[in-house]
Amino acid sequence: MSNKLTRKYGLFTAICMVVGIVIGSGVFFKAGDILAITGGDMSTGVYAWIIGGCIMLACLLSFSFMSQRHERVNGIVDYAEALVGPKYGYIMGWFSTTVYFPAMTSVLAWVSARYTMAFLLSAFPNLSVLIPNGVTGPETMVLAGVYLIVIYAMNNLSPRIAGKFQTGTTIIKMIPLALMAVVGLIAGITSGLLQENFTTDMANVQPTSSNPLFAAVCATAFAYEGWIIATSINSEIKDSKKNMPKALIVGGIVIMATYLLYYIGAAGGATKAELMEKGATVAYTNIFGGVVGNILNLFIAISCIGTTNGLMLGCTRCMYSLADRKRGPKSDMYSQVDKATNMPANSATFALVACAVWFLYFYVANLWGGVPAGAPFAFDSSELPIIAIYLMYLPIFICWMVKAKGESALRRFVVPALAFAGSVFMIIASIYRHQMGCLWFMIVFIATMIVGLLLDMKKKK
Q: What is the pLDDT of residue 109?
């Protein structure tokens, strides 16, 4: 065993990490939700995607500036530690390790399994005898568990293969998105469906939120989130201080453009009622027919698996980033790096266990009969951890504006101020959308942070 990670990833892999983690499931998974939230108002949905994208770009630019100054092991932890202080860096690392990364990874594993099941049931109808509960049954949960274990094993045993897998799936996932953006737009203009969807209101359909725009922007948070995870491998990227900012900026522009074009293209391939009922992927079947449309659904499943891989890639390094600082429980054990694989194997194992815990919560709260909204400890584990990290960004932005002497006014004040305002907007939008769910999640969040601080104090003693 050693305690150093080597630089094994280039700029293209870093860009694929940013794009591959963010673009994957959210654009497919949340497009229908946004239409339901807005009551079928396509224009409000477009505004939500634009606002969410601008918030992402402002935050992304701010952290790209920080990455040029601060580099150690795990980007977001490095920035929190250098700008706010060591204790806040530890809190950020503990949150990433126990809540943010594993919660997001577990949800994405399920989404990957869901789209895989949708492809299999469409391609092989006889499978419905073996899978009577459809895409949300226990069979999907079993497949999601298999995905978690296989992706964990790939990252733990061969990080280079995991990196190549991330690059390959990123390229694959752009195929259905590009096709929908181009062909859907042309088909929608030719048939008149695109204009109809944007100009005609749906009869007897009301928004599901009292403030549709706020709630829709909050829903885009899941689709846009993930770029910060790329900074978790900054110590493994060649010439990181130059390549990490480039990866963040190029990746962010690609993401926002892709989402807007896809959303508009989907509106050219299906009615609003179809999009709300079946999700944006129904547009593929409508435009390309059953066989080709289902093949594209397979590409979507692969896209989601690639996103899960990117999340796991960051997740496996979280405990290591704390241990490298001699913080948290059993730092000597979690700071070890396997000489053969150059991976923090113990940290990766902790990540798998944390993912399993959040996976169990997701199953019980959302699928196994579900939990009524507002019930004790019922919250959306796909969105609220993202909103929590926006809350934790705020002190970092403030301290950057105070401490980043020598930077231009644009880099020191203007962009971080926009990122701060965007993060506050996300927090307010979350309160409108989730209401009591925010309260229950904050209780879990605070309790988890207290446990982390107590473990750190015990270690120091």
A: 92
